[in-house]
Amino acid sequence: MSLITIILKMCEGLGKTCAIFFLTLLFSLPLGMVISLLRMSKNKIISKITQFAVSVLRGTPLMLQLLAVTYGPYYLFGVSVSRNKLIPVVIAFAINYAAYFSEIYRGGIESISVGQYEAATILGYSKAQTFIRIILPQVVRRILPSVTNEIVTLVKDTSIAFTVSYQEMFTIGKQIANSQTSFTPFLVAGVFYYIFNALVGFVMGIVEKSMSYYKQ
Amino acid sequence: MNVLKMTDIKKSFGGNEVLKGISFHVDKGEVVSIIGTSGGGKSTLLRCATLLETIDDGTISYMGEDVTYYDQNGKLCYAKDLNHFKKFFGLVFQNFNLFPHFSVLKNVMDAPVTVQGRDKAEVKEECMKLLNKMGLGDKADAYPFELSGGQQQRVSIVRALAMKPDILFFDEPTSALDPELTGEVLKVIKALADEKMTMVIVTHEMAFAKAVSDRVVFIDGGIIAEEGAPEEVFGNTKNERTKQFLQSYND
Amino acid sequence: MKKLIAILLAAIMVLSFAACGEKTKADVKLKIINEELGAEEYGIAFRNGDDEVCKYIDAAVQELVKTGKYKEIADKYPDIIDNLLFLNGESKAEFDTAVDVSKAEKRTFTMGIDPEYPPFSYIGDDGEYTGFDVEVCKAACDILGWDFAVFGVNWDQKLVQLDAKECDCVWSGMTILDSMKENGYVISAPYYYNTQVLVVKEDGSIASSKDLKDKVVAVQLGTSGETLLNEDLSDLKDTFKELVTCDSFLKCFTELEGGAVDAVFVDYPVAKSYVSK
Question: Regarding the domain delimited by A13-214, which CATH topology (the fold level of the hierarchy) does it fall under?
Answer without folding.
Answer: MetI-like fold (1.10.3720)
